[in-house]
């Protein structure tokens, strides 16, 4: 069963240096969906250590739960966030939401 459009929760504004949690979830898809996050339509790498572009970022992505956690946000984390739920039957994307730092 193809995933339905996930519900995304993105904080509107976060002070620099604070933590922020973004959530993405849908429960229609079978098998269970995995989740990937995008900022300004660019995929956020789930592995920040191996990807030079994301080495300054302090976030972790859990593809199984759809949670994206910033441990300490900085100005560069400002942007439009969206999430895609994917399984063997297809994928679905939530609306982009702005997060300001």
Automatic annotation (TrEMBL):
GO biological process, one term: cell migration
Pfam families according to UniProt: Ig_3 (PF13927)
Cross-referenced InterPro entries: Ig-like_dom, Ig-like_dom_sf, Ig-like_fold, Ig_sub, Ig_sub2, JAM-C
UniProt protein name: JAM3 protein
Record lineage: Eukaryota, Metazoa, Chordata, Craniata, Vertebrata
GO molecular function: cell-cell adhesion mediator activity; integrin binding; protein heterodimerization activity; protein homodimerization activity
UniProt similarity note: Belongs to the immunoglobulin superfamily.
Boundaries of every Ig-like domain copy: 6-101
Keyword Cell inner membrane part of the UniProt annotation: no
TM spans (from-to): none
Entry-linked SUPFAM superfamilies: Immunoglobulin (SSF48726)
GO terms for cellular component: bicellular tight junction; cell-cell contact zone; plasma membrane; protein complex involved in cell adhesion
Compartments where found: Cell junction, Tight junction; Cell membrane
Organism: Smutsornis africanus (Double-banded courser)
Membrane-protein topology: Single-pass type I membrane protein
Keywords, in A-Z order: Cell junction, Cell membrane, Disulfide bond, Immunoglobulin domain, Membrane, Signal, Tight junction, Transmembrane, Transmembrane helix
